[in-house]
Amino acid sequence: MNTNDKTIEKIAKAIIWSAALFVLVILTAIIAYILAKGLPILNWGFLTQIPRNMGRSGGISSTIVGTLMVTAVALVIAIPFGIGTAFYLAEYTKESWATRLMRFSAESLAGIPSIVYGLFGFIFFVISLNMKWSVLSGGLTLSFMILPTIIRTSEEAIRSVPTTYREVSFSLGATKWQTISKAVFPSALRGITNGVILSIGRCIAETAAVILTAGTALKMPTSIFSPTRTMAVHFYILAREGISMENAYGTAALLIILIFLINVVANAAVNRLMEKGR
Amino acid sequence: MNKDTISKMVFFILALSSISALALITGFIFIQGLPLFFKVGFANIVFGTKWAPSQGSFGIFPMIVGSVCVTLGATLLGVPIGVCCSIFLVEYCPASLSNLFRPAIQLLAGIPSVVYGFWGLLFIVPFIRNNLGGPGLSMLAGSMILGIMILPTIISISEVSLKDLPRQYKEGALALGMTHWQAIYSVLLPAARSGITAAIVLGIGRAIGETMAVIMVLGNAVALPESILDPIRTLTTNIGIEMGYATGDHQQALFATGIVLFVIIMILNSFAQYIARRK
Amino acid sequence: MVEAVGLGINTRKRAAIAFYIALLSIGSLLAGCQGRERNGIVVAGSTSVQPYAEVLAEEFAVMYPESSIDVQGGGSSAGITAATSGTADIGMSSRELSEKEQHLWSKEIAKDGLAIIVHPDNPLRSLSLEQISLIYSGQATKWSDVGGSSESKIHIVTREEGSGTRSAFSDLVMGDVEISPRAIVQDSNGAVKQLISDDLNSIGFLSLGLVDDSVKALMLNGVKATKENIINGSYGLFRPFLFVVNGEPTDLALEFIDFAVSEQGREILSTEGLIAEE
Fold first, then answer.
1. Chains B & C: contacts with CB separation below 8 Å
2. Which CATH architecture has domain A53-277?
3. Which of the other chains make 3 or more beta carbon contacts under 8 angstroms with chain B?
4. Which of C103, C69, C68, C108 is nearest to C92 (CA)?
5. Residue C151 phi, psi dihedral angles, 5° rounding
6. Which of B85, B143, B207, C178 has a CA-to-CA distance to B177 between 20 and 30 Å?
7. What is the pLDDT of residue A273?
């Protein structure tokens, strides 16, 4: 090893370390800043009171409920359809141009910007189908948005289940349905769960697709036909209009905590499923 | 009917409805947007430089340029840092640090984009205005925010592709007398090339598709930019800002903008599949 | 598509499809049925009118605790569109109705001034309409071009296409001259105000009721932008705030509009900074 190599080695190491340090600093800067400003705002009253005076005072309870309702509607629709489609593609069809086309369109639609889903949802659900601004419109739009992701991740998970599982199951005399439900599904569950949890995070963090489908109303939603405002939209409006910076920070901090919890639950679930699978 | 037939039918129905849903959204966007292409002319929309929907001008060329420039800027900033960071995680990172690093990156990937945009508005925009000039709301600010936003995507996917390489690659390279960096640079990185390319393509996809964060920091001017300090509008922000107002031709113009985005994503995706197949 | 996934249609599948279509129609029926059973209305549109409508709605709720009024933003044109399509019961507009919109029922609830604003530290105090028009058309690019002392470039800030505030500004100041495409576009009053209060070299326009210490309202030909000067006719930049309904308003919508223009409503709007005197 000559000195020249050593110098390059050192420079490379320095660059890589500084890149990593830079990432870490940026991460901390963003997360710490929001938490530092927002955590002091978070208290029981903030979580349980309805926003008043456009969000200037009061809490954010209705936006929390709104977020949960919209996400729930999206999941209730997207999960069965997404996973069912994945099973159909992976287990019931032969690889052909049709499945490739299907995969390509799911892949492409997963990459379509959320604002395009928002535009579609606004014109189609809200106006054409006259569902108005509602939890239902917002949830449907989000379900369309996360459907490709769920199909893709589930199909990948199902396909990565070793063929031997199926062969063993069939050789034991199991029917196709028994094979799928008893052998394939449990082994693919980890991957499927991962995709679903990823989608929950996307729903909660989404702004562009729900602002004109779920609406921006601050009242507590009473049914899936009520208009509502999600937390991310609430943050956007508070910060953008300069209505109340404190409440904006509080909302953002709660969002970050929520995303963090989802990640923790996801990791724990994946780990437990992995252990069970072994 | 036995369970087998029922289950097959249920799966078939689910698949059919998913396909219909995906076909519905694609079809809807094209049906809404295409008529304007015929009415105003393809060239007048895609290469037109004047956007004034209330006066019947629907040129989105400045927005196409805007999307391309901002995304390019984000890639130039985000890719080297992201790839270096993934090398760090796989090759240099002490275990104690990586246990902190990975969840942090995962968290960063989940933070709402509006939070990034707001953070950029608070820190990056004033920094640019006070130190580099211009109004601060600019292509540069957008590129910086998007560069940060695509980091988690690039880091996590490149990391996986580097980690999945057989151990023999590195051991062999070191046995041949290469230094650590030489092994990374001339053996590991080329071997993980397709994974890293996929990471970059996904990152580009995210940057092109981002809306709310860039509405806040780009300034959204509809003219072609002269410098990176000029305000600029992307295809997504064009839809985002004017979506609520749109009726008639204006609404169709936004769907037309959506079609252009759609086509760009399709091209990117085909490219990604091509890379994946070459692997 | 059925053929595409590698299957022929047989009777069973036909039954399946029929079942699915039935399911979908029941779903859409349910969605369509909701209508207006709930004792609530949606008021949507101009972000300039929104804060005042929020205040009105809160006072209204004191008198009619059973009612629920959801106030949402979106912008004037969005509000008018929403009222036309029935997405909202009442649309809010901060500009006059255009010729195409004349068939709608509308009621002026107040008048609001339009302030030309700059950073508080900007030494400029007064402009003429011609000078403002020169700035916004992009012909005057430096402060010294309009009588200022600074050679710095002016950063023009405008609102988005469809905004009532923008269209009022266009009509009152620009006439047939176009706003420069290089102008920064912000999508709300709050965003304009925040930007102007941060950037020494920026100029923008804003609803007079929202002007506070963070920005400075310029005089027009030496006339201060105040309510008094608008009423006595010396300050000409103002526009109406309208409630717009498709057809004659009924029930709760009518009561709310009546409340807005009642003695009490006018007093509320007046204290909030609007010109609501008869």
1. 94
2. Orthogonal Bundle (1.10)
3. A, C
4. C108
5. -90, 5
6. B85
7. 63
Domain ranges of chain B: 51-278
Whole-angstrom distance, CA of residue C232 vs CA of residue C238 = 12
Backbone angles phi, psi at C272, to 5 degrees: -80, -5
Using the predicted structure, report yes or no on whether residue C152 has a pLDDT greater than 80: yes
Q: Which of C42, C89, C207, C213 to mutate to test the interface with A (most CBs of A within 10 A)?
A: C42
At residue A276 the predicted structure's pLDDT band, cuts being 50, 70 and 90, is: low
* CB atoms C54 and A53 under 8 Å: yes
Number of H helices, E strands in chain C: 9, 11
What's the N-to-C CA distance of chain A in angstroms? 45
Q: What's the confidence (pLDDT) of residue B218? A: 93
> What distance in Å separates residue B68's CA from the closest CA in chain A?
15
Please write the tens of the pLDDT for every residue from B8-48.
888 888 988 888 888 899 999 999 999 999 998 889 999 99
pLDDT at position A274 is 61
For residue C34, pLDDT beyond 60: no
Q: Check whether C65 has a pLDDT greater than 60.
A: yes
Instruction: Name the minimum distance, in Å, from the CA of C132 to any CA of chain B.
Output: 19
In the structure, how many helices (H) and strands (E) does chain B have?
Answer: 15, 2
Structure tokens at C166: 């923008």
pLDDT for B56-86, tens place per residue? Answer: 889 999 999 999 999 999 999 999 999 999 9
Residue of C198, C201, C202, C244 to mutate, interface with B, max B Cβ within 10 Å: C198
pLDDT of residue B1: 63
The helices-and-strands tally (H runs, E runs) of chain A is 11, 2
Strands (DSSP E) contained in C14-148 are: 40-45, 68-74, 90-93, 105-118, 126-127
> In this complex, which of A17, A81, A120 lies closest to B92 when CB atoms are compared?
A17
Q: Quick count: other Cβ atoms within 10 Å of Cβ B70?
A: 33
- The structural domains of chain A, with segments of one domain joined by +, span 53-277
A141 vs A71, A114, A207, B19, B256, CA distance in Å?
Answer: 10, 9, 12, 16, 19
pLDDT of residue B248 exceeding 90:
no
* Domain B51-278, CATH: 1.10.3720.10
pLDDT digits (tens, 9 = 90+) for A111-153: 889 999 999 999 899 888 888 889 999 999 999 999 999 998 9
Of C66-70, C201-205, C226-230, the least confident: C66-70
CA distance A72 to chain B (A): 18
Coil, helix or strand for C108? strand
Of C51, C60, C103, give the one whose Cα is nearest residue C271. Answer: C51
Average pLDDT over residues C25-48: 62
C187/A217 Cβ within 8 A: no
CA distances from C82 to B87, B191, B232, C14, C103 (A): 52, 56, 29, 40, 14
CA C180 and chain centroid, separation: 21
Compute the count of residue pairs across chains A and C with CB atoms less than 8 Å apart. 78
